[in-house]
Every structure is written in C-alpha cells, then in structure tokens.
Amino acid sequence: MGFGQHQTFYLRQQWLTKGLIEVDKNPRFFYEPDHFEVLGVGKNMAKSIRYWLGATKLVKEKRSIKTELHLTELGKAVFNYDRYVKSRFTLSILHYILVTEKNEASTWFWFFNVFNERVFTKTLLFSQLEQWAKDTFEKDVSINSLKRDIDCLIQLYTIKSYTNQTPEDVIKSPFESLNLVQSTTETHYIKTPLKHSLTGECLYITLLIYMNKYGVKEVGLNDLINEPELWGRVFNLGRDEIIDHLDKLQEKYGIIFTRTNRLDVVRIEHEVQWDEVLKSVYENEVLV
C-alpha cells in the first residue's frame, strides 16, 4: 500500500521537469548527497519530487552494482516532446498512470476508482477512505497519513485561490489544468469530466495501456463507464460522453464499437503499442 509517500507536498509546476533533466544527465542523481541542493529544495521536498516521478512512471529504479533511476519510455517521450509538462494531453496520461497505481498512490486510486460520490467534503472523503483502507489492507494506516493524503489530493487537482495571498503563498500544481475536481464552496467539491481537444487521444492511449496490462482485446461499454482504471471512473466521464468519444475514435483509429441490444463491446483487433500512438500524437497533433 502507498499512503503518505509525498512528504505532505503536492506536485509543483516544474518539479517533474527538474527531475527528468537531472536523471537524464545522471541516473545516480537522487542518491548523490547534494541532490536536494542542486534542485534548490529541502531534503523532504527532494524526496517528494522523486516520489512523483516514480508514481507517474516517468522514471523507474534499476539495480545492478548501484541503484539507479532511468527514464521510462513514457519519461523519454515527455522529456523529448513536452519537457516542461505544460500540455493537458501529457498531464491526462500522467493522471491516468498515477490513479491506477493502487499500491503506490492508494488514496488516488481509491478516489478515482472506488469512491462513488460526485459532490463531497473532506470530512466525507476521510470517513470513506478510512473504512476502505481498513477493509482493503491488512496493515493499519495512520489517521494522520490519510488526512495528509486527502489534503494533498485536493491541492493537487483544485485551482488555488489567490485572494489575499501573494503568488509565493499559493503554488500551482500542473494537474489543476485538467479541471477534474472543482471547489464549489469553502467546504464542498465536485468531480468534473475531462474535456480538451485531445481527450479522445488520451482515452485511446489509456485503453491500450489497460488492455496491455490485463491481456484483453475487448472491453464492454458498461465496464468503460463503471469499472476501475477505465474512462468513466478515471476521467469522470458519463455514458453519453463516452459513446460520443467512441464514435469519433472509430473513425480516427479504427477501433470496433459493436452495439447490440444485449452487449455493447469495444474491441481492438490488431496489436497496437500505446507508446507508439503517444509519440504519434506528440509529432502530429497540436498540443493543448
């Protein structure tokens, strides 16, 4: 299980960029005694940067004589095409990776794949997360870790208010731009659907990731809407929105969407590598 690994720090703008640049230059960077000074942050913030790089699968650990961090295929693509991680297309893919890692970002997995409420408060989040953690993991999770995770999750996704504060006091998270969680009042929040001009491409790539992960070639429409790690849950999409995207994806990518009275199925017959589609989008589409 993975609770409280972020050292209480939500992801800041430029953190992923700084980490990718340094790891690309030196796979041993995060094991060097002065790495936090090079990053210009404290030791705990440096640990947080390393956590976010790993939780979004931009880097992976390799052990030989000495432990090293290396860019993954996803990390290489982001480094080469969107190094400053400004595109909502990139962030949508990273969001998907983050929230489908039950054992590395447990609270994030729970919030986007298990938690059913569309409108909620932090109090509701805490009570239901606490119960889920008890039911799911053998080892007890501290109340403080759960509360810190909830605070971090809200700060990661919601737009910060600058009212009566200087810019230095309110530091943006890149995930704010996805607009997946909105603050409606001082205490209430709402889940909102992913919406940008490359949403379809994000959905196609994440479906390929899912199919590769579980070794399947078809997924039912109801699963796309309701099951963990799929579009309805991860991107807050409803049935009509998903069907609309499927119709467009049939034309662009040739996926097969078979609609019958009893069973609606999405199928990809030919083997397609998600990382190749990712590179193609970077090379041929206007990033948003």
Describe this entry's structure for a reader.
The chain has about 290 residues and is mainly α. It contains 13 helices and eight strands. It has helices at about 15-25, 35-40, 45-55, 75-80, 90-100, 105-115, 120-135, 145-155, 200-215, 220-225, 230-235, 240-255, 275-285, and strands at about 60-65, 65-70, 120, 180-185, 190, 220, 255-260, 265. It has a three-stranded antiparallel sheet. The chain has a three-stranded antiparallel sheet with strand order 6-8-7. A two-stranded antiparallel ribbon has the order 1-2. It is globular.
Task: Produce the secondary structure layout.
Layout: H1 15-25, H2 35-39, H3 43-55, E1 59-63, E2 67-71, H4 73-81, H5 88-99, H6 106-113, E3 119-121, H7 122-136, H8 143-157, E4 181-183, E5 188-191, H9 199-214, E6 218-220, H10 221-226, H11 231-234, H12 239-253, E7 256-258, E8 265-267, H13 274-284
Helix pairs in contact: 1-3, 4-13, 5-9, 7-8, 9-12, 9-13
Task: Say which CATH homologous superfamily of the domain at 199-284 is assigned.
Answer: Winged helix-like DNA-binding domain superfamily/Winged helix DNA-binding domain
- How does the major sheet shape up? 3 strands, antiparallel
Helical amount among residues, as a percent range? Answer: 40-55%
Distance from N terminus to C terminus (CA atoms, Å) equals 34 Å
- The backbone outline, from C-alpha atoms, is globular
Task: Give the neighbour order of strands across the main sheet.
Answer: 3-5-4
| CATH architecture descriptor text of the domain at 199-284 | Orthogonal Bundle
> Poorly predicted ranges (pLDDT <50, ≥5 residues)?
none
Radius of gyration: 19 Å
**H/E element sequence:** HHHEEHHHEHHEEHEHHHEEH
How many E strands? 8
